[in-house]
Amino acid sequence: MLLMINEKITVVIASVLKPVNDPRMYLKFGQTLRQTNKYNLNIIGFSSKNTTAVDGIHFHPIYDFNRLSLKRVLASFTFFSKALKVKPKVIIVNTFELLIVSLWFKILFGTRIVYDLRENYALNIHHSKTFPKPIAHLIALAVRLKERLVIPFFDELIVAERTYLHEMPYLAKRATLIENKYLGTIQSESKPHKGLHFIFTGTLSESYGVYDAIDFISSIHDQYPITKLTIIGYAPNVNDQLKINDLRAKYSFIKLIGIDSFVPHEQIISAIRASDYALLFYQNNESTAHCIPTKLYEYLANGIPILYRENSLWESIIRQYEAGTKVPNSPQNVASFIQDLQAKKFYPNKPGSEILWESEGEKLKTLLEKLT
User: Fold this and answer.
1) 41 and 173 inside one domain
2) In whole angstroms, what is the distance from residue 298 CA to residue 192 CA?
3) What average pLDDT score do residues 300-317 get?
4) Fewer C-beta neighbours within 10 Å, C or N terminus of the chain?
5) Residue 40 contacts residue 56 (beta carbons within 8 Å)
6) Neighbours of 333 (CB within 10 A)
7) Tens of pLDDT, residues 155-199
8) Does residue 23 sit in the same domain as residue 156?
9) How much is the mean pLDDT over the chain?
């Protein structure tokens, strides 16, 4: 009887788009549930160079990441095989590729299944530049159809962005909003931001603004040679990796970290804290316009002034703390722009617990309690 009381519940958290040590799967979901001491946690994703074993959390790499590889096509079968070995009571998946195989687990073994929608995948595909428009439209329709058919059989739904409840109204009555807020504490002391060390973090691609950021900093560097730009993150597209490396060879002010591999979250936070200003330069895109980037919470929590492009949602958040300034595509008068930037006092209103993960983690614990 005592063994039954102490027996931990086996949970699988899985993706085919993220590494096993992905911040949301591992640091937020995994570590939050680990703290309860109720669960045997298994994270399935693609291989990562920077994985460290942790008591109570087991990593199960399914393949080396390549978005268009044959191994990704077969990832559902590999996932099924690995999950079968650990016999989960609960499966949390966050990519549409794993919806049907998760449903098979429910049918065959009575497993409770959860879909964590980290993106509006159909909308992203529709607006992406990866495929020609007609093909992207067909793929997006297929993804949306799969979700609409399979989602009703899932025990719980999670959405990472509030906007998904409006974009996919069929989720609204069932989904729990668990946002990607900052895992950590608010930096109580703000350092003076008088240098010209800028940082660009996260996914590195045209749509996320990495080339706009380089052009912007180049225009400043022309007049202020002390200007530096750190680019830290991962470029999923090989062509972007090559182009960014070519720009690094051209511009000595650029420092690259990662690019062809995922960077540990702790390293990204350290780089943010070492910088003077952060760049948030997403291009206008319907698939991201109403989402709050995780890095916005990271910048706010660490007191880094934010230079951002037009976006009413981000602007309302940034203005709340006077945490940044909206910038043009190219400053007409660089000297005046830099003088104004360095004279401005940022963060007179400190962010509080509303930007932290803690409350989101409590919602996750409550959801798992319901399932188990």
Assistant:
1) yes
2) 18
3) 95
4) N
5) yes
6) 10
7) 999 999 999 999 999 887 899 999 999 999 998 776 666 789 999
8) yes
9) 91
* Distance of alpha carbon 258 from the chain centroid: 16
Q: What is the CATH number of the domain that holds 101?
A: 3.40.50.2000
Q: What is the pTM of this model?
A: 0.93
> What domain range is 39 assigned to?
2-181+357-371
Q: Can you read off the two tokens belonging to residue 258? A: 């990662």
pLDDT digits (tens, 9 = 90+) for 318-339: 999 999 999 987 777 899 999 9
Same domain, 216 and 255: yes
The amino acid at 316: S
pLDDT reported for residue 89: 97
| Residue 27 structure tokens | 């640091």
DSSP 337-368: HHHHHHH----SS---GGGBSHHHHHHHHHHH
Residue 231 in 3-state DSSP?
strand
* 318 and 213 within one domain: yes
Are residue 224 and residue 157 in the same domain, yes or no?
Answer: no
In a domain, 187, yes or no: no
If you average pLDDT over residues 337-348, what whole number do you get? Answer: 92
Question: Considering its fold, how many domains does the chain have in total?
Answer: 2
